[in-house]
Fold:
Amino acid sequence: MGEYTAKDVAALRKETGAGMMDCKKALEETSGGLEDAKDWLRKKGLAGATKRAGRSADQGAIDVSVNGGVAALVELTAETDFVAKSEDFRGLVARLVAQVSANGDAGLAEQPFEGTTVGEYVTQAAARLGENVGIGRVVRYETTDGLVDSYKHIQNERGVIGVLVELSGVDASNAAAIEVAHDVVLHIASAAPRYTTRSDVPADAIERERAVLTELTRNEGKPEASIEKIVEARLNSFYKDYVLEEQGFVKDPKVTVGSLVSGLGGAAAIKRFARVKIGEE
Structure:
């Protein structure tokens, strides 16, 4: 029997939507391994919310900026939303975004910042606020031949989702391209893709998904001769769920995000994107 704690059960329930007893059984059957337990639940058809991937993380705030061809995103973590939504905390995140935009994200903690270094300033802020405060995820895109855009979703008075996107093969001053780029960042915030294109999906992730779907399909009692075909169809659904270019655009699901961008003409394409949400990794 695997060893696990009540916290493990709670985490598994949050990520899969499965019942408490099913989560306990999954952890017992997989020696307490969270990832294996998630797969066990899926194979049994018991996971009701597999898209809610990501482990619980600290509270915090996110800010973003676009300045010419540079887009930046900074996450600052805290222990409570009370601190995260405070003016002092949100102001610090905004200044850190400006720092990253101007000076890059390399060696951020050691960069000079307001009379000291970024790392030391954050340490001082933690002491002042009375909580464990830290620099979370930091993303910076710089383009010379395309267009960048950003979006910040605000909830409970602070940014909780931040998105950056870079389009290549477009004129940064083109009104249509600017509109599409903004549509894409809004879509990413809502649809939470994991990959830009199908080729970006790691081979081991595909094989793992295929193995889960094969056993799930077999457990559903489908004819053995039909399983491979059914699994391939379900893999296509996986791509449509998690690959940005293949997702149905949130404003018009009949149109894929890839076709929305390619409709700009020429070599227009999504080069890369980042989506950061407080509470998820």
Observations:
- Residues 1-56 form a domain with the Helicase, Ruva Protein; domain 3 fold (CATH 1.10.8.10).
